[in-house]
Amino acid sequence: MSIMKSRKLAVITLVYWFLLLYIVAALVWWFISLEKQNRQMSTYKLQELKLDDVLFEQKFYKIEDERKRKTGQYIGEGVTFLALILIGAVFVYRATRRQLRLSIQQQNFMMAITHELKTPIAITLLNLETLQKRKLEESQQQKLISNTMQEANRLNLLCNNILLASQLDAGAYKLTKTEFNLSEVVDESLADFRSRFPNRTIDNSVAEQVYFVGEELLLQIVVNNLLENALKYTPKDKPILVELSEVNRHICFKVSDNGAGIPDNEKEKIFEKFYRIGNESTRNAKGTGLGLYLCKRIVQDHGGEIFVKHNHPEGSIFTVLFKS
Ligand code: ADP
């Protein structure tokens, strides 16, 4: 965060706490003065009473009752007012913090995205130049071409994610649902990832003919993002498992990995926009923090749910559930 921004934030926080304390202090002060006035009034009335009055006792209790009733009224009003102020204050505080976190994440996103866009372009250019200038052996040529394709695919997924996120945010996206074969979408994705990552083990158990009503392109994005993450956050020598099943009119898509896993306190946050575990300097996997945010939005727009659990002995299992 820039110095200007953090200074501005410090001033705003200070003003916020000052105003809140001032309001609470004024409220307490208001209560004390009213109560004091109340007591004075009843003392005054009591002094007015005559000891030889036959109704002395009756009048005495009446004055006392009135004093107590007023105290109760002040406490009741004061507590309600204080509660309203505190609820409002908590609400403003949380909203501001959320906004701030989003703005920091947005900045991280801009840094990440510049890097994410430039790297595949630079690699692609370099590979093409090498192919153009040198006479390479067939195997070397193939290696360079598949490497270039991998980078182009990464760029493609990234562009899809960014475009879709901005369309969803602008409310410009209308779902056009059709019935399609989800098993085929998963199989195509698996074939694509296997050709991009020939050295990785991707196990699968995909039920055939699982039909789904929704937008095919979006479901493909969900499948691709979950697979991409599983491969990205799992050591190269460990397998990942992709499953699709339909039981009792429930469609379940699962991607399990044996990677680092996700701490319990991050399990919700990872679905937030731009959220990435750790910070820019400690992370080594590339990314933008958009993938899971999009997955969640797409799944919810299709009436489903997505969540993550621990895998045994390590890693995570991402599950997407739909009613068919
Ligand atoms: P990106 O991968 O571009 O950073 P995502 O929204 O796809 O963004 O994921 C958000 C964060 O969740 C990632 O930065 C990573 O820290 C964590 N994450 C996602 N998938 C996995 C996984 N399979 N294993 C461990 N961590 C994961």
Describe the structure.
- The chain has six helices and seven strands.
- By secondary structure, it is of the alpha+beta class.
- A hairpin with a 5-residue loop joins β6 and β7 (316-323).
- It has a five-stranded mixed beta sheet with strand order 2-4-5-7-6. The protein has a two-stranded antiparallel sheet with strand order 1-3.
- Adenosine-5'-diphosphate is lined by residues 225, 229-230, 233, 257, 259-260, 262, 270, 275-277, 287-293, 316.
List the helices and strands and how they pair.
Elements: H1 3-48, H2 56-133, H3 138-169, E1 178-181, H4 182-196, E2 202-206, E3 211-214, H5 216-232, E4 240-247, E5 250-256, H6 291-301, E6 305-310, E7 316-323
Parallel strand pairs: 2-4
Antiparallel strand pairs: 1-3, 4-5, 5-7, 6-7
Helix pairs in contact: 1-2, 2-3, 4-5, 5-6
What keyword list fits this structure?
324 residues; two-stranded antiparallel ribbon; 61% helix; 13% strand; elongated; binds adenosine-5'-diphosphate
What small molecules are bound in this structure?
Answer: adenosine-5'-diphosphate
Stretches with pLDDT under 50, minimum 5 residues: none
**Shape from CA axes?**
elongated
Strand order, biggest sheet? 2-4-5-7-6
- Residue-averaged pLDDT, rounded? 90
Secondary structure category: alpha+beta
The ordered string of helix (H) and strand (E) elements is: HHHEHEEHEEHEE
Number of strands: 7
Largest sheet: 5 strands, mixed
- Fraction of residues in H or I helices: 55-70%
Helical run tally: 6
